[in-house]
């Protein structure tokens, strides 16, 4: 999977998302993007992913996307104000889209 | 219309639907069918509240046939089947852990592989742990995976043999990936604080796609903990509870034991045909049904007071007394029971991670006869509202048989089987017009209850959906695989909450089933529930009406009622009857109504026959 994040994305958020993906056993490549909304970042990441699943992270939100979904309709959105559990969950959800397990 | 013609409507007020059938009867007895209607029953069948639905059905049938209410000559109502039914289900075993000795659950992602045996130590105390004793490290909630891995690695570096870890959070893989020395790691242990410290413990994790071998084997546990034969006997339920898991933890505490306690279920007393037979409900459904066959016809059934079966029958009697409008429960005589063996997944009492054990249970459907009919009161109200003569046209079973005769390809003698909600009813109509009706306990509601219990859904609505609709597995955002293996694609993406789930494909779209079981398991539970209720009951009812009790002597069997519309029950029944040379199929009343409207049609046919 690929994760695109804006420059202002919090490192703690990125760490939990990566942990969520790792716990589910799915590799994640993290790419620093110039900017843009979380949905657009996620859509671009999904297009760049060989597994067709992308995560977009900004200071405001975490979004999980799939390359085949319409660009404006991601699989999961976690708004700002979430905590560690929500970020970890976003990583797991992204991984589970790849592994074909029910999203947690 | 000529002077001799009469416009007649038959109305069948059922438990869930009210149906009507409109026809013109010519003076020579010729019947011309004009229209039908189907609406929801209002209130409880046979009570004054059900008048509303009856009137709606009449008006719709009139509209369907292009007639006006003023033209109507006679309204015919059915005499309700004189039975009401009740259900009860009791678990008859219970697994209780009196001391915390076992964690046997299936976290989605355990870490490492193998078996580790040592003494339980909190991760906080790992620094002071002596270097000669193997340690099973217990990690409470709130510890970060990096810190856990660092603590374990530090201990290993110090020379402490760390053999396994038990975590509260869901991060076994994360911890495993950071360890310098591999060991089995079990996570998602919700009540990890209850794991006793300083005790011998064994942790086992099997590789992907495999199940544990040592802790699910009684002698494996005995070997690990060096148990004597008496102690081995005590841990045997532990091994059984852990069978089939990918990971497990067993902690040996001095007072610990898991008991597989059998709740006294009690004795069922069946009275009938001049004798009384008692049967231990423990013996299972087969023994109960065999005892029941010996006392046919059943006059009453009692459960031993103070036992489960006593409580079950008392509960059934109470609900029936309520339905009958305040009858004394003591006056209610149970005329049939259907017992079904079932397994209910129940949370192990005293478990540490929400462990589930399959407990044995017995489901019981019971049925009573009632002599009290309140249909006349409904007839009076209908007559008043429509200013039309309204009569009770006939008893349900007989009318259904007459209606079923309008199915193309059917002739008397015919048996109709009404697959209802509470009871399964059969009626035989011979060539000379005499009819016999029987009612047996157990039908659609029991099927729903079995599905609900065996899948641990705890949601009657979802269980009802599982019963009514085929299953599918959502395989991507854009396609599902149906239970027969075919694939269906969608233009619109499926919602994320159904992704990768087993769903029922209802008319309103996919509904997820809250279970970890695969599609095949859900399908098997559904089909078995239907077979154990409807196939068993159809055969029971047919044997009671068949000449000499021999199914071979039946010719035509017509399935009616809501469950005859089911996508698999009619096939299951037809399969079961195939060996007996019986013609069996779902009715098609009037050639276009399917299994619906038989009673309403039969009411009109009976009236025409009587008048002609």
What structural class should be given to the helix and strand makeup of chain B? alpha+beta
Average residue-wise pLDDT of chain B? 88
Distance, first to last CA of chain B = 18 Å
Tally of individual domains of chain A = 1
Overall pLDDT of chain A: 92
Termini separation of chain A: 18 Å
Order of neighbouring strands in the sheet with most strands of chain B: 7-13-12-8-9-10-11
Question: What oligomeric assembly is this protein in?
Answer: heterodimer
Number of helical segments with 4 or more residues of chain A: 3
Tell how many strands the DSSP assignment of chain B holds.
30
Question: Which band does the percent of strand residues of chain A land in?
Answer: 15-25%
Strand order of the largest sheet of chain A: 2-1-3-4-5
Overall geometry of chain A comes to: globular
Strand-residue proportion of chain B: 25-35%
Fraction of helical residues of chain A: 25-40%
CATH class of chain A: Alpha Beta
CATH architecture descriptor text of chain A: 3-Layer(aba) Sandwich
The name of the CATH superfamily of the largest domain in chain B reads Swiveling domain of dehydratase reactivase alpha subunit
What characteristics describe this protein?
heterodimer, A: 104 residues, alpha/beta, Rossmann fold, 5-stranded mixed sheet, 5 strands, 38% helix, globular, B: 612 residues, alpha+beta, Nucleotidyltransferase, domain 5, Ribosomal Protein L22, Chain A, Glucose Oxidase, domain 1, 4 domains, 7-stranded mixed sheet, 30 strands, elongated
Explain what this protein looks like in three dimensions.
The complex is a heterodimer of chains A (104) and B (612). Chain A is an alpha/beta fold. Chain A is built from three helices and five strands; from the N terminus they run E-H-E-H-E-E-E-H. Chain A has helices at residues 11-23, 38-48, 84-99, and strands spanning 2-5, 29-32, 53-57, 61-66, 76-79. In chain A, strands 2-1-3-4-5 form a five-stranded mixed β-sheet, sandwiched between helices. In chain A, strand 1, helix 1 (11-23) and strand 2 form a beta-alpha-beta unit. Chain A is globular, with a radius of gyration of 12 Å. The model of chain A has no long low-confidence stretch (mean pLDDT 92). Chain B has a seven-stranded mixed β-sheet. Chain B is α+β, with helices and mostly antiparallel strands and 612 residues long. The model of chain B has no long low-confidence stretch (mean pLDDT 88). In chain B, helix 13 (569-578) links the parallel strand 29 (556-560) and strand 30. Chain A binds chain B through residues 19, 22-25, 66, 68-70, 73, 75-76, 93, 96-97, 100-103, and chain B through 108-109, 145, 170-174, 177, 475-478, 493, 496-497, 499-501, 512.
């Amino acid at each position: 999977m690929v994760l695109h994040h804006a420059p202002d994305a919090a490192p703690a958020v990125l760490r939990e998302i990566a942990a969520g993906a790792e716990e589910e056993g799915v590799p994640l490549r993290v790419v620093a993007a110039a900017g843009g909304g979380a949905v657009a970042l996620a859509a671009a990441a999904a297009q760049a992913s060989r597994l067709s699943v992308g995560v977009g992270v900004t200071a405001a939100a975490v979004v999980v996307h799939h390359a085949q979904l319409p660009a404006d309709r991601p699989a999961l959105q976690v708004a700002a104000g979430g905590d560690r559990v929500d970020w970890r969950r976003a990583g797991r959800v992204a991984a589970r889209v790849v592994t074909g397990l029910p999203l947690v | 219309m000529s002077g001799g013609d009469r416009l007649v409507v038959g109305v069948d007020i059922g438990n869930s639907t009210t149906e009507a059938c409109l026809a013109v009867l010519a003076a020579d007895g010729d019947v011309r069918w004009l229209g039908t209607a189907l609406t929801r029953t209002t209130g409880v069948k046979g009570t004054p509240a059900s008048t509303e639905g009856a009137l709606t059905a009449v008006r719709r049938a009139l509209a369907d046939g292009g007639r006006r209410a003023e033209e109507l000559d006679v309204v015919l109502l059915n005499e309700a089947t004189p039975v009401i039914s009740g259900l009860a289900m009791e678990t008859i075993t219970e697994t209780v852990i009196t001391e915390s000795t076992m964690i046997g659950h299936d976290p989605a992602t355990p870490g490492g592989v193998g078996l580790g045996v040592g003494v339980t130590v909190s991760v906080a105390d790992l620094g002071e742990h002596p270097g000669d004793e193997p340690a099973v490290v217990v990690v409470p909630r709130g510890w970060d995976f990096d810190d856990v891995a660092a603590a374990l690695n530090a201990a290993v570096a110090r020379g402490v043999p760390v053999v396994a870890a038990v975590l509260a959070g869901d991060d076994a893989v994360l911890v495993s990936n950071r360890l310098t020395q591999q060991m089995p790691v079990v996570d998602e242990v919700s009540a990890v604080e209850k794991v006793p410290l300083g005790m011998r413990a064994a942790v086992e994790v099997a590789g992907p796609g495999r199940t544990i071998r040592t802790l699910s084997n009684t002698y494996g546990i005995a070997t690990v903990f060096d148990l004597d034969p008496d102690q081995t006997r005590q841990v045997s339920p532990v091994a059984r509870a852990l069978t089939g898991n990918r990971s497990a933890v067993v902690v040996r505490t001095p007072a610990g034991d898991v008991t597989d306690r059998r709740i006294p279920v009690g004795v069922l007393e069946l009275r009938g045909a001049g004798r009384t037979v008692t049967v231990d409900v423990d013996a299972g459904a087969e023994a109960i049904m065999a005892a029941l066959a010996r006392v046919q016809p059943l006059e009453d059934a009692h459960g031993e007071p103070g036992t489960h079966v006593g409580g079950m029958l008392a509960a059934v009697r109470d609900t029936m007394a309520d339905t009958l409008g305040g009858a004394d429960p003591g006056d209610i005589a149970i005329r049939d029971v259907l017992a079904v063996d079932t397994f209910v997944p129940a949370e192990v009492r005293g478990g540490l991670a929400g462990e589930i054990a399959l407990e044995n249970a017995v489901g019981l459907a019971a049925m009573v006869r009632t002599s009290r009919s309140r249909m006349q009161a409904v007839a009076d109200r209908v007559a008043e509202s429509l200013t039309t003569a309204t009569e009770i046209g006939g008893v349900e079973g007989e009318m259904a048989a007459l209606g079923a005769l309008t199915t193309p390809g059917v002739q008397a003698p015919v048996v109709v089987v009404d697959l209802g909600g509470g009871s399964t009813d059969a009626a035989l109509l011979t060539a000379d017009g005499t009819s016999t009706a029987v009612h047996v306990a157990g039908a659609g509601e029991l099927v729903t209850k079995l599905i609900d219990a065996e899948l641990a859904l705890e949601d009657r609505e979802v269980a009802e959906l599982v019963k009514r609709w085929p299953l599918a597995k959502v395989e991507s955002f854009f396609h599902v695989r149906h239970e027969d293996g075919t694939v269906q694609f969608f233009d619109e993406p499926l919602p994320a909450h159904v992704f990768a789930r087993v769903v029922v494909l209802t008319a309103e779209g996919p509904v997820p089933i809250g279970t970890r079981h695969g599609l095949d398991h859900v399908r098997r539970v559904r089909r078995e529930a239907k077979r154990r209720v409807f196939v068993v009951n159809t055969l029971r009812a047919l044997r009671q009406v068949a000449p000499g009790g021999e199914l071979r002597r039946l010719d035509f069997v017509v399935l009616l009622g809501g469950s005859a519309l089911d996508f698999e029950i009619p096939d299951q029944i037809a399969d079961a009857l195939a060996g007996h040379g019986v013609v069996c199929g779902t009715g098609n009343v009037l050639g276009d109504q399917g299994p619906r409207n038989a009673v309403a049609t039969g009411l009109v046919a009976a009236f025409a026959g009587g008048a002609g």
